[in-house]
Specification:
The protein is mainly α. The two termini are 24 Å apart. It has 4 helices and no strands. This is 15,16-dihydrobiliverdin:ferredoxin oxidoreductase.
Amino acid sequence: PPPQFFSEAIIFARFPEEETIQSSLYPAFVEYLDAYVKAMERAPSSPETAELVRERQKQYDIYSADHDPATGMFGALFGKEWAEEFVYGHLFSLSREE
C-alpha cells in the first residue's frame, strides 16, 4: 500500500493464545487510542483544516475504491452492479466527487 495512506508501523499478527492479546496487544491498543484522542483534542480546527482533511479523505477513497480486493468478492456474491454501487457509493463515496 502507498505510504501516504498507511503507516509503516501497522501490526499484522496471529497469536496462538488469546492471553497474549489480552495481556499485551489490548493494553497497547488502549494506550494508542488514548494518545490519539488527546491529539485530536489538541488539533487545530478551522474551515481550511476541515477542507484539507476532506481532500485527503477523498484521495484515500479514490485509491481504496480502485484497489480494494473485496470489490471482486462482492461482485461474485451480489453482482457487479451492486458491488460497484456499494464500493463507490457507500464504502468510498468521496471517490465519485469531481
